[in-house]
Design brief:
399 residues, alpha/beta, Carbamate kinase
């Protein structure tokens, strides 16, 4: 398996039959050069969003188990079409669902975690010299045999898991952008490519809102020492190589990028102490069949635990509508976003007064500053989000 590589393609790269055929030709060329290939695919284009919309057209509160059954079909369409495209070009290929691939997960619907992998059918197909196409984002609970999904960005985690198991030469995540950039290139033309980045910095960027990868996949890649490359699915560009080392000398620290969590919500949970507050949150989420969201900060104040969190738009909508009928949980003002600066070394806390003053000069008030080892994050109003992003990116360019 020394020549085995894993490719992962995002939904926008697979949005049309023509794009699928173009990718199939490139995969076929790699196969002819002697590479063994595992190809992980996301759902075509906006298929997942359309499936979610369909579910909500027949139910205001669709069952989470049935949502997994529904959403897993998006990736199955992509995997089948890619295999058909390869076969039409006379390349041997076979597609597998997450469960057929032996992706074993926890039982949590819509946000399961991978606990083991038994890819018996993939191994056999690779031994038969076939290109293996795997539906990302999904697996199966080995106890209940129920289909599960891994949450938004789950295909990235599928790809890294397979690359780690098979000790692939590299895991290539190929998208409709050129790699990791200093700001989201789809919305800001001033974005510059980062040709290299450390796992730690990339993980921090993704945690604080970068759409390039899901932070769970970066954490897994770092943990399992999977060589990770992020590039363009259609164009030959340098892309971004992810590495373990920071090549800068000593304690030199540079600001790499600015990112944004567009929507966050604030909850207040009436309780006697922090432990009780989190227990009430857990019970509420369990009742709504939801996994624990991404929590940025919490504090016990008076007789309430206050939380600041984010998740997928669908999950946030469920939380917002459900807390209205919940005795101990109150929804607070939600008109906030988080903009953040990520560093390639330890966070430079000296920049806090500089950056907050700069934002103030541009009439962007900051309600909270959150620090972490590689990131400074600033809570602003959603109305100020775009202005804050451009202001902070201009600051990066001047460094």
């Amino acid at each position: 398996m020394k020549k085995l590589i894993v490719h992962k393609y995002g939904g926008s790269s697979l949005s049309t039959p023509e794009k699928i055929l173009d990718i199939a030709k490139k995969l076929g060329a790699l196969h002819e050069k002697g590479h063994k290939l595992i190809v992980v695919v996301s759902a075509m284009g906006k298929s997942t969003d359309r499936l979610i919309q369909l579910a909500h057209q027949v139910s205001k509160t669709p069952d989470r188990r049935e949502m997994d059954m529904l959403l897993s079909t998006g990736e199955r369409v992509s995997m089948s079409l890619m295999s058909i495209a390869l076969q039409s070009l006379d390349f041997p290929a076979i597609s597998f669902t997450g469960s057929q691939s032996g992706i074993l997960t926890t039982h949590t619907h819509n946000k399961a975690r991978i606990v083991d992998i038994k890819p018996i059918r993939i191994e056999q197909a690779l031994n038969d010299n076939k290109i293996v196409i795997v539906a990302g984002f999904q697996g199966v609970d080995p106890t209940t045999k129920e289909i599960t999904t891994l949450g938004r960005g789950g295909s990235d985690t599928t790809a890294v898991t397979l690359a780690a198991h098979f000790k692939a030469q590299a895991c290539y995540t190929l998208k409709d952008v050129n790699g990791v950039q200093s700001i989201d290139p789809k919305n800001y033309k001033a974005a510059r490519l980062l040709k290299t980045i450390s796992f730690a910095s990339l993980k921090s960027m993704c945690f604080w809102g970068s759409p390039i990868l899901h932070y769970r996949s970066v954490a897994l890649s770092e943990k399992m020492s999977v060589p990770l490359f992020i590039g363009n699915s259609t164009k030959t560009t340098p892309g971004t190589q992810v590495h373990h080392k920071d090549n800068n000398m000593y304690e030199k620290t540079d600001v790499l990028a600015v990112n944004c969590v567009s929507k966050i919500i604030h909850l207040s949970i009436r309780c006697h102490h922090t432990g009780e507050g989190y227990e009430l949150l857990k019970k509420f989420l369990s009742h709504e069949q939801l996994a624990m969201p991404q929590i940025f900060a919490s504090a016990f104040e008076g007789e309430a635990l206050r939380l600041m969190l984010t998740d997928s738009d669908e999950t946030l909508s469920i939380i917002e509508s459900s807390v209205k009928n919940t005795k101990n949980i109150e929804l607070l003002n939600n008109d906030n976003s988080i903009v953040s600066l990520t560093f390639n070394g330890a966070t430079d806390h000296d920049l806090i007064p500089t950056v907050t003053a700069l934002l103030a000069e541009n009439n962007i008030p900051v309600s909270k500053v959150i620090t972490s080892p590689l990131t400074l994050a600033f809570v602003v109003t959603t109305a100020d989000k775009d202005k804050a992003l451009t202001t902070l990116h201009s600051f990066i360019e001047q460094q």
